[in-house]
Records
---
Amino acid sequence: MAMIGILGGMGPLATVDFMERVIDLTSSAGALRDQQHLPLLVVHLPHIPDRSDALLGTGESPLPALLRGIDMLNRNDVELIVIPCNSAHHWYDAMCAESRAPIIHIAEASVAALPAEVTRVAVMATGGTFHCGLYQRMLAARGFESVEPDETTQQHIDACIRDVKAGKIGASTEHMARALDWFARQGAEAGILGCTELPLATQQMDAPPIPMIDSTLELARATVSYALSHGWNRAQ
Amino acid sequence: MAMIGILGGMGPLATVDFMERVIDLTSSAGALRDQQHLPLLVVHLPHIPDRSDALLGTGESPLPALLRGIDMLNRNDVELIVIPCNSAHHWYDAMCAESRAPIIHIAEASVAALPAEVTRVAVMATGGTFHCGLYQRMLAARGFESVEPDETTQQHIDACIRDVKAGKIGASTEHMARALDWFARQGAEAGILGCTELPLATQQMDAPPIPMIDSTLELARATVSYALSHGWNRAQ
């Protein structure tokens, strides 16, 4: 029986949101009974040191803890690994080097989902992910132009993420609306929700001012597509 | 680092709902950052044979698959096991016999949450769980009287569960409302949602006619209470 490994807990609600998207997409693909869904092994480790703090030079590296999670998934024979945390992908190459199972890259899946007619793309991510340029490099390589937040807007994004992690979804949505308004005024034609806490804040919004690529959803789509094409929804 | 083991996927959305309750309860207990949440290992195995069919004599036993899940959790050194599926608890003793980690009993946690002043309690569960008398025996042992569904009402409960497993929450709520109305007319003073799909149907209802004990929530409360009392929310 093939299992999808999820290295999660970064943060806790984002992992649950990701799992729910995987289940919903599998239902949409025709699953009516439990036995038509996908087996998962979720190593949910919220104690992994904060990724953004490490990238900003204010906290310890999460890499040893990330590698312990990758090792646990491989020891349990998962056939694929996904990590619903964008910031953790700064250490993507190091994790791949230690993993037998392939790892889907959340930022690659997200950038690939941008419509071709878009040019200017707002980058919304943790301060650390923004600082290390993960999305900016990937957007430039595919011919998109990054719209980078000013200091106040990044503070709204960081506050939004912090509120979701604390379970305060209502407050998080207000910060998100302020950030999106700013990006729309800068001429951004689309935005990437490049942190898996951010979609939890935007799910409550009626009409966001710019279309958004949801990194949690794009990772879930890539995961379900891979798994269904390998027949992992069928009991072996 | 102590981990809570979850034997899940029965069904998929019920497991996600359970995880979300654990996270919400941990946030309510004061967690503001990822690192203050509880480590989980989720073995999510939707391919486990249908528990209710087995209890009704129309399907194969899930016990071998349940024991493989229990074994995987123990091999990964979890310190506690919980199973957000009521029907699976028919095989509780057999699973405990093969597990080093203690297993919290979902029905014990649920019956313990009934208010003392209540006498007549509606039993809402899969056909199989109802047939094997899991809740009826436990209620009788604690001095409560079971209100058992008639055939039409059990059909509504089964249809509700089936709809949730197929991702059709709207349709599931209509079946649940019909069942609850019937139980209220029989003089039930409270009801036990003794299947972890059922709370997903009732979450959309404005004012249920009788107060309900939610087995998913009671299992989550028992889990978080155990884990916080052991300090598992603190990074070791």
---
Amino acid sequence: MINIAIMGFGTVGSGVAEVLTKNHDSIARKCGEDIRIKYILDLRDFPDSPFADRVIKDFELIEKDDDIKVVVECLGGLHPSYEFVKRCLLSGKSVSTSNKELIAEKGDELLQIAKDNNLNLLFEASVGGGIPIIRPLDQCLAANEVYEIAGILNGTTNFIMTKMIREQMPFEQALKLAQELGYAERDPSADVDGDDACRKICILASLAFGRHVFPSQCYTEGISKITLEDVEYAAQIGGVIKLIGRCKKLPDGRVTLMVAPTIVMRSCQLANVEDVFNAILVRGDAIGDVVFYGRGAGKLPTASAVVADVMDCVKHLNRRKYLFWEKGAPDYVADYREWETSLYVRASSFDAEAAFEKAKEIFGEDIRRLHREAEPAGELAFVTGKDTEIVLMQRMRIYENSGCSVIGCIRVCDL
Amino acid sequence: MINIAIMGFGTVGSGVAEVLTKNHDSIARKCGEDIRIKYILDLRDFPDSPFADRVIKDFELIEKDDDIKVVVECLGGLHPSYEFVKRCLLSGKSVSTSNKELIAEKGDELLQIAKDNNLNLLFEASVGGGIPIIRPLDQCLAANEVYEIAGILNGTTNFIMTKMIREQMPFEQALKLAQELGYAERDPSADVDGDDACRKICILASLAFGRHVFPSQCYTEGISKITLEDVEYAAQIGGVIKLIGRCKKLPDGRVTLMVAPTIVMRSCQLANVEDVFNAILVRGDAIGDVVFYGRGAGKLPTASAVVADVMDCVKHLNRRKYLFWEKGAPDYVADYREWETSLYVRASSFDAEAAFEKAKEIFGEDIRRLHREAEPAGELAFVTGKDTEIVLMQRMRIYENSGCSVIGCIRVCDL
């Protein structure tokens, strides 16, 4: 029998206890060991919980108990998660965590400590909730040189975009609905501003390319500026607007990555991913395109991924799995503006025709004008040809200085 | 350094050698060992191959060489693959195979031998080509009770159906094109008749539910009878016809499975899987729906899955992974006709109106009539309500005896 501890008894933590109890027998059969929850660390009390008797408030009880072989971290946030996980590893306990912020900020350091102590630090649940992605990327696609990953990594924003696209629901109203349904926090900024997706693409980039990428190195843009007009124009070129996290390996060995609302063509597998679902597209030299799709959040999906990691830790006590990446570096991440893209631009001008002619002068003859129903006079939308963002943004400034006020612009994805 | 042997130097076997060579350094880094191809077993000679010097014709050289720790089986077919793989395991060598027929027919026996000898028998490439599915099902979803799997498991038939749906290309012509493009064999029966998909769903069912299911236990129906008229009627109810392999766990512990052309609603993730791509939908009690998408065949995708297994074998020498299932049994698989479904029925009669009234009498008032452009007089198509196939087929016989000749019928999927 293996004793484990759960740190944090919130949504995911209580889900972990629920899955371990509900599927106890098949889990025991599959990993050849009985798994017993000995401690649950939380500052709150849970008098009505069946696990009430295991709830403790003192972390040291876990740290000092050699009976505990595996610790589940579901506290979230960076502190005290970081300190606790570090101390668990230093005291010889493998760790399974769902904490994306922790792995995105401290993954390289913690993986090194795990390696030095021949322990496992697993985090399948940190990206894509219950969707298997970390292990497949590390093992199943190991024979590939993965060179690009693009994904819908945040269910809340995808739900909001789906409502805007399918039901022409304005952003604010869709956000409110997401909050009512419990998909979005009262403070939705981490989702809406793209921070959550940023942490996830950083973890995927670190794992796929072998060196740590920090959230501070990832250009991140949220969806709060997206309007129904943008959605309508995007549809006109056969696209939908999605919050996409992308990373790419460059020929010189550096990586480039970003999180931003992006117009994705309907023909792309990511375009059909709706509501709170997530999907991750992985490109490898041998495999070509692979897509992983499922619920990116939610109590039980996330918990099932954590428990799968716990089972893996139990099967690999005193024998590390190879999940690992090297320390990061400032010059490892290239300027995202070197990325080639085309832009959807929406502008207003007293004379749309003249403004379009001006746009042709500045962006080139190959720009394509878009129209929508009931288009107000003076509104203009077009898609530019492909170029690096540096060049496109220069032209954008020139264009604005020429008297056209740009209302918004969105990258058009060439996936 | 680890020495391996490759049995069978056809498409997949040569792909394995190519991937191991092309990505040699990163593979060595990832599994902490240099992997060297010592032998290639094939009856043919390959004088122009860079591996010409390793080609042997005598299996015993591999069997008797204790230097060989891992053997790759890409011979295909049941014999001599079965005998060779068995002898490899009995002589202490782990095996990675892409051979679905071998695993579907002999998996339980070979897995037992691997277990008894503390060796690994891995077969990620046997289902979904390069798509990670075996390992995720075994590990990532291990905390779930998986209760249903449905998939587009054969790229050739999916290519044909896509041509029929997108371009109204008749079956025979689409098949011919698939052969010209190298997607279909000169004898296409294994693909077109569903045998290939049958083997794959058997492997998935065996792994997900823990006991061996044999191809002979799986009701299998091919796509050769599907017409453009069927495609047109299916579109009218918002569906597309796909060759779907499905398996389900029943409350009484038995399983039911089948491979058959099925009308899938456009809203289902499987409906948007086109051309030679495969997709596998897995349903678990905690995770909900997860979909794995990618190239189900092809030299390099399949080879990359085989090589990933080789790397896993190398990382786990003398330490089994838990991939395993129990022996099968005749009474373990329930009659597929107990499965509830609704049916699309196409019939002809001198008087379509009367035939529809008759259909209502026999199938019930809730049947829905379908129409298509330029529908010839006397043609009738409708969708029945949901019931077990046993009941529906009885009604079908009664209907035919009432003077309506049924041209075709296709199950409508409730995924």
